[in-house]
Amino acid sequence: MADDETLLTVAQMAEATGVTAHTLRYYERAGLIRPVARNAGNQRRYSAVDVDWVAFLLRLRQTGMPIAQMREYADLRQLGDATIDDRLRLLEAHQIAVREQIAALRAHEKALDDKVRVYRRILTTREGKKP
To answer: Which of 49, 67, 83, 98 could form a disulfide with 76 if both were Cys (CB 3.0 to 4.6 A apart)?
Structure first.
């Protein structure tokens, strides 16, 4: 592996990914991050590949993917290219769920827009202005 100068400490990784050191350690314990390389002093050292992987995990989490499903994806990833079909199916199923959430949010947004228009019309009428 590369020397320590090209690898990130836990603090640097936390800064690079926007998550806390605690979250990084949790992701490692939860099996979302493969065991991280260590230096001679047994301190974690993260690579650019690790940064990209954590960024992807965060994206999955932000889309509402449960940790258990993220772990399943991470486990499949560790098994290599033979699991691409399984990973694709997992992501496609989640993509459908995300699209359903987006549709629901759009419906909620429309309901809010309608209610805001009603209240604006009422206030405008009270003030003697035409809508």
So the answer is: 83
For residues 94 and 69, the answer to whether their CB atoms sit within 8 Å is yes
Q: What are phi and psi of 9, to 5 degrees?
A: -75, 175
Q: Look at the chain and count its residues.
A: 131
Residues of the chain with pLDDT > 70, as a percent, come to: 94
Tokens of 115: 């209610």
Average pLDDT over residues 31-54: 92
- Domain chopping of the chain, boundaries: 1-79, 84-131
Element (H, E) at 96: helix 84-126
Domain 1-79 carries which CATH code? 1.10.1660.10
**Inter-helix orientation angle 48-62/21-29, to 10°:** 90
